[in-house]
Amino acid sequence: MQIRWVISILATLLIVGCVAHQVNQTSLSYLHKARLPKIENYAVYYGSDKIDELSKFDLVILDPDNYSKDEIEKLKKNGTIVLAYLSLGEVNENRWYFEYAKKCIIGRNPTWGSYYINISCKTWKSLLLGKIIPKILEKGFDGLFLDTVDVVDNYPQFKDDMIDLIKSIRAEYPNIILIQNRGFSVIDETAKYVNGVLFECFTTHYNWSSGKYELWSCNDLNWVNEMALKLLKLRDKYDLIILALDYADNEYLKEKCIEHAKKFGFVPYVTTVDLTSV
């Protein structure tokens, strides 16, 4: 009887230990990151100036090359969280680090004129962690907006490298805010390292052939809503904020975008496709 009792106690301790280990691992994997306060509105703006208009938002995403440290500090004093745009999967010729990134280029994005990056290229990862991000953050930004994560949809062989890159950014900078743009093919793995996800073109998209803003419909809309439900689950699991970014040029489309975003509990923002108006 005593032996059975001892075995029972040991078995219970083993189970408790395993559960505690799993909880601890979960905590390490996603709770060890900066906490993002409640966001009721936000803006994405890649122009310059407009400090007064931007200060009306809880959170703004800006092009870091267009603002000085003093301007960012002025925004932050008004209580606005300020994030810097950072492209992980592409590089544009107008960036100061383009010459360094050249050796990692593997293709060209014909829509935007930017260049696709080989995410497994060690030079690129070293450049991001060692030079680009430190230079951005020294201006006083609260964190980063991680764009072009979905480059892995065109180059699926880089999925693991993209996950590792985002994980490395979080490990190197545990106290900054990270918002990921799309990247749904890796979001199950990266969600634990970011504070939120931005769903670009959630309700509308810009038709480059016709030059018109259009609503998603039929199978496209079904896919969008399916991804939205997926994000809701990740939001609850990892305490994320979900932002919806849409493009429109008239009040009817704007209303549709806001209505669709609020239906899912996402924070909406509607602007023009060039992202140079507030």
Please render the helix and strand layout as text:
Layout: H1 2-31, E1 42-45, H2 51-54, E2 59-62, H3 69-77, E3 81-87, E4 90-91, H4 98-101, E5 105-108, E6 115-117, H5 122-137, E7 143-147, H6 159-172, E8 177-181, H7 187-190, E9 196-200, E10 204-207, E11 212-215, H8 218-238, E12 241-247, H9 251-263, E13 267-271
Parallel strand pairs: 1-2, 2-3, 3-7, 7-8, 8-9, 9-12, 12-13
Antiparallel strand pairs: 4-6, 5-6, 10-11
> What characterizes the major β-sheet?
8 strands, parallel
What structural class results from the helix and strand content?
alpha/beta
Strands in their spatial order, largest beta sheet: 1-2-3-7-8-9-12-13
Strand composition percent: 15-25%
How much helicity do the residues have? 40-55%
Low-confidence stretches: 6-29
Look up the CATH topology of the largest domain.
Answer: TIM Barrel
| Gross morphology | globular
What's the number of extended β-strand segments?
13
Q: What is the element string, with H for helices and E for strands?
A: HEHEHEEHEEHEHEHEEEHEHE
User: What's the number of helices?
Assistant: 9
CATH architectural grouping of the largest domain: Alpha-Beta Barrel
CATH class wording of the largest domain: Alpha Beta
Task: Give Rg in angstroms.
Answer: 21 Å
Q: What do the pLDDT scores average to?
A: 91
Overall number of structural domains: 2
Assigned CATH superfamily of the largest domain: Aldolase class I
What is the first-to-last residue Cα distance? 75 Å
